[in-house]
Amino acid sequence: MADDPKFYRARAAAEHAAAEAATLDNVRERAERAERAWIQMAERAESVRAQRDVREAAAAAVRMQPAE
Question: What gap in Å lies between CA 68 and CA 51, rounded to an integer?
Answer without folding.
Answer: 29
